[in-house]
Amino acid sequence: MGIRASHNDQQGVTLTETLVVVAITGTLLGFAIPSYQGMIERNRLRQAAESFKSDLQYARSAALKRSQNIVVSRQAGNDGAWCYGLAVRTASKTSCNCNETDPAANNFCDIKRIMGNNFTQTNMEAATINNNTFNSRRGTTNAGGATFSTSHYAVRVVFSDVGRVRLCSPDPLPADKEALPNIQTAC
């Protein structure tokens, strides 16, 4: 004869056990959410800077491939209210307006337009020169750069006279910002 279970055995969980699980879960989420928000902020900033970097590289290669000078124009702004665009440079078009939507307008960015609202909560800081032209013979341009930031982080995209483009941490780094992780080189 086997041992039979009593009908009085309880199955399920008690209220106390449920409250312990809820308390532990709440504590873990309290630590995880700020870390997750920081990760989202860093990724959004990296995407904005990498987008600008790759479009600068594209402008250089397009100038060489098309045998036409390519101008890159940008407008600074905060919280995604910035933009940049690429256009074929002509005698009458020395820059383009990335906010222009009419393709027939002389200042329309006829190759590409990128709006900062695709990268919410990111800023593009104003630069001394906001228009750079990549030369069609050698892919060269005037050295410059653009600094992108969020509320906690900053990264700079720089380009040299010979057209080399790279990411670096702004130098000096603003007092309220940290360098974007994994970007060791200071500008």
Automatic annotation (TrEMBL):
Primary location class: membrane
Subcellular location: Cell inner membrane
Pfam families for the chain: GspH, N_methyl
Top-level taxon of origin: Bacteria
TM segment ranges: 18-36
General secretion pathway GspH domain: residues covered: 48-161
Membrane topology: Single-pass membrane protein
Keyword entries, A-Z: Cell inner membrane, Cell membrane, Membrane, Methylation, Transmembrane, Transmembrane helix
Record flagged with keyword Transmembrane: yes
Sequence similarity: Belongs to the GSP H family.
Name of the protein in its database record: Type II secretion system protein H
